[in-house]
Structures are given as C-alpha cells and as structure tokens.
Amino acid sequence: MKIRLLTSALLIMPFLALAQSKTTGSGATIAPARQMTQMDSLMVKQLFYSAMEAKVTENYSQAAEMFNRVLQMEPSNDAALYQLAELKVSKEDFTSAQGLLENAVAVNPNNKWYWLALTECYEKTNNAPKLEGAFKQLIRIDADDTDYRMDYARVLYYEKKYDDALNVYDQVVKIRQDRSGCC
Hints:
Layout: H1 2-20, H2 38-56, H3 60-73, H4 78-90, H5 94-107, H6 112-124, H7 128-141, H8 146-158, H9 162-180
Helix pairs in contact: 1-2, 2-3, 3-4, 4-5, 5-6, 6-7, 7-8, 8-9
C-alpha cells in the first residue's frame, strides 16, 4: 500500500506543478472565475491528488467525478482538463476530450503533451485543418523535433497541399543534414 501511495505521489508531482501554471503565450495570467483563497487552493490540490490516486487505482468513474469537481472550483486547471480528457480518450470519446484539451492548451499553450493528445483527437475526428494547426504548435514548441514536421507534412499531403508538404520535407532534410554535418 505504501508503495502504491508513493508511486501515486511521484506521478502526481509534475501535474501539480502544471496545475499552478496559468499563463498564456503572451505571458498574461488567466484568473479563475473567482479569487481562490489559500484554503481553496489546498482543497483543489488535495482533490486533484485524490483524483489521480483514483485514476492510478483504475477507479475511473470516481477519478472523473473528482477532476470535474476540481474544474468546478478552478475552471482554468489545465492539468485537470488534461487528465479528464485522458479518461475521455480511454472511452474513445474523442469529441469531448478534444474540447477539454482545447481548453487546456488555451491555459497552457506551451505544454507539448497537451498538444500531442489534441493531435490524437483531431486525427480520430478527421479534423485535418485543426490537426495542421496543432502540428504547427508542436513545431513552435520544439523546432528541432523533425517527427512533428514529418507528421505535419503528412497532413499537408493528405489535404492535397503538395507544394507545402514538399517544403516541409525539405526543411526536415536540411535539419537532419545540419545535425549530421553531412552535405
């Protein structure tokens, strides 16, 4: 039991840190609907921790209920939005997950894990224009990751934007050549 709690605590720490980050790309702070007191903040953290524990122990309905309660108290809690979206994805409810993830990236636009989860939803719902935009964001976040560019080029190709896809493939070749010192 102690090992399970320790494991849960270790899994939770990054999400608690994420939950505290409420800035937009411009650096503006997004405030919750009402000013949270220190007690409210502690309650949100404890509720989030309990929700993560329920999720880790595979009590998904209880986890979802608690993540929803976190969001009632703090609607801009991007970590809770992400965790609830993961539960929706596990039930193959990609449309609901997409809305939650879009809210999460609005709160924290620099979290690549949120964008990666969102690309999965866009792929599953066949939303190529939004998928294209999500890959642009991933490239913005991590310009050196050529996998994002390859996926972006694939989306452009399927949208019949052949010239754009070729330009992105050329960028990938250049980046990889620069890394290897070749040619």
